[in-house]
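dumping these here so i dont lose them again. two proteins, back to back, each one seq then structure tokens. dont judge the mess
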Amino acid sequence: MAEKSQEHLNSWNQKIATAENLIPKIGRLYRECDVVLSVHGRSLVGQSPIDIIKAHRRLRHIANAQLSLQDTAALIAELELLGPPPLSLDLALLQQNFLAQDKPLKEFLTAQIATITAQKQQGTDVVLYGFGRIGRLIARIIIDHTGSGNGLNLRAIVVRTGGKGDLDKRANLLRRDSVHGRFHGSIDVDYDNNVIIANGVRIQVIYSNDPSSVDYTSYGINNAILVDNTGIWRDREGLEQYLKAPGIARVLLTAPGKGDLKNIVYGINHTDITDGDQIVSAASCTTNAITPVLKVINDSYGVAHGHVETVHSYTNDQNLIDNFHKGDRRGRGAALNMVITETGAAKAVAKALPEFAGKLTGNAIRVPTPNVSLAILNLQLANATDRDTLNARLKEESLTGKLRTQIDFVTSPEIVSSDFVGANRAGVVDGLATMVNNKTAVVYVWYDNEFGYSCQVVRVIEHIAQAHPAHLPATTVA
């Protein structure tokens, strides 16, 4: 028994040692080449040895998956020698393709990299107007993605002045988060210049109550993409105020847009954005969570009609305790009640997927949890199927499909909402909860309504900036 115990410990320590050796190489490829390495969508950049091991262990749930830490080490060693262009590289899928052909690893990787079109080598300025729940998470993601600086560069945040100690409070809200934990890195404050420096990224803090009054060029900011996180203006007329400010070229709204604004769900209709679209919307967290799943189901079986019920965490819009609120029921204490309210997500799906026009109804229940929500899709299908077949299709999409960066899939019998805090996919299908009876399907989709949505927003920003790294192996979404 003692020998067995030592054997297990030795095996574990060897894995730790291998993962430790990978960390500086993963970091160097990211900093010097803008190469993001992942394992089935789980980024390895900035991860601990244990996180790297866990990313590889997840493959044990996937049939025919073959990727060991040694395989990863071999792939990374060749990549370092080749000096690849900026790309997002999925090691698991790449290894799968390598095993399917008969070429030496160097020859295989050289041929794969040759298919990548060179990206522009110039960063794009980003300004965050508003620095609340979504704004701070977008900031964290962009800072994590800064790399060599040739992608998105967070240059400024614009807020209303909060009085004495405002700069420290803004920095501390970025540094610590009750839901998402501490900021991964270091944060300093330059009080003389109203600047927050996060992991070397210099962020100008600008105080303003008027969207059109700021001269961003005076801060060295030019042709920037401004992300509105306030939701105060949601139509073209209101959001056009930002374009009057020198230095701003495009505007992205992090809320459902009204009127003729394009509502974009990355992975579904982001290619509808044209160079002439100065203002677009990133839709809502719920729309982003359910639209990719609905597309897969509709493409595979057809959806005649359906109902979406969203069990949604409370938001800052609700009252902490009972008080006046202009919205029905939202005045009641958010942390004490389940609150039935409306959601526009069902109708908003049709803005990204026109084939769903008039097919979906929706409602929402706000519940006393601070983050992570659950969408229940009750669908009448055009073609009959069964639970295992539907689940297999959604799982396949989450691993190798065009929407693998939007859809995840889990089958744990013990998983609960808090397990999805920090999930970077738009939605996560709970396979064990799926129910199918001939042409009736009920599918449960978890989503981190803060972080998962913010990841989708950043993907849209990268697309507008033409800064999204090419995918290897290729996907038509990138």
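---- next one ----
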Amino acid sequence: MENKIREMRREKGLLQEQLAKKCGVSRQTINAIENNKYDPTLALAFKLAQELGTTVDDLFMPG
């Protein structure tokens, strides 16, 4: 699954570490998701979308 997390995170001026803290995960988790090496749980996907001010549908696309 591809995503726009890196792009949207940078638009918000957030570092991986900052987004991770807001979502209750490690920076490494955010990095793995951004690099399409890890698919987040549904709960984390919703939290990421909330923190980035978007929807899960806009954040993630089938790869």
